[in-house]
Design a protein that fits this description.
CATH superfamily: Nucleoside Triphosphate Pyrophosphohydrolase
Largest sheet: 8 strands, mixed
Number of helices: 4
Oligomer: single chain
CATH architecture: Alpha-Beta Complex
Strand content: 25-35%
């Protein structure tokens, strides 16, 4: 299983695929890892259900759109993390960057999202400070790589039902990581040498065409 020395070594040599955001909306997320009882744990948030938000109700990393005042795209993710869950990343170690990804939903397909990875040995208590966040919690990395937690997540696009690969992280109720966050996890686990096993359904290439 992936532990911090291996994660740090792998990400130090990983060359992420970066995309230009010229003419597009830029956004950033923070993938934050802390030590767990047996393996590192990653911070996930459940976004609040909001009309008009393409990520309404999704499981995600903390983050959001870039602001003109941000000095860098990394600062965007750090600012959004502080605003959403009250967590300052000033004392955390930046240990890597993942591939930039584009949104696939029609409402988000003109966006480039960047992700930086942090090791935070003592993050302290999370305090939800944004109406955009319903809940925040930590998930062990081995939960995400366990095939028993893999699920088929079906989304409705007009008349079409599209299956996506997902990972259930809910205890009391289903909470599924899918879409953009799932794709970032694919990049992370591939880069650190423990790739996610393939689901028995394809990951759709691009569904912007469905709602055109």
């Amino acid at each position: 299983m992936t532990h911090f020395p291996r994660i740090r070594e792998s990400l130090a040599t990983y060359s992420p695929e970066l995309k230009s955001s010229e003419g597009l909306n830029a956004a950033a997320v923070s993938m934050i890892l802390r030590p767990g009882p047996t393996v590192p744990e990653v911070l996930l948030i459940e976004r609040a259900k909001r009309e008009g938000d393409p990520w309404s109700g999704h499981m995600a990393f903390p983050g959001g759109r870039a602001d003109p005042s941000d000095a860098s795209i990394q600062q965007t993710g750090e600012r959004e993390t502080l605003e959403e869950v009250g967590l300052s990343l000033e004392r955390a170690d930046v240990i890597g960057r993942l591939d930039d990804l584009g949104g696939r939903a029609a409402a988000a397909n003109k966006m480039v999202v960047s992700a930086h990875v942090y090791q935070f040995d003592d993050p302290g208590r999370l305090v939800i400070q944004s109406s955009e966040v319903a809940e925040a919690f930590w998930v062990p990395l081995d939960h995400l790589t366990d095939p028993d937690n893999y699920v088929r997540h079906v989304m409705q696009y007009g008349e079409h039902e599209i299956p996506f690969p997902g990972i259930n992280v809910g205890d009391d109720r289903p909470r599924v990581v899918w879409g953009l966050t799932y794709r970032f996890l694919e990049v992370f686990f591939e880069a650190t040498g423990t790739p996610l096993l393939k689901h028995d359904i394809p990951d759709p290439e691009d569904f912007a065409r469905i709602s055109e």
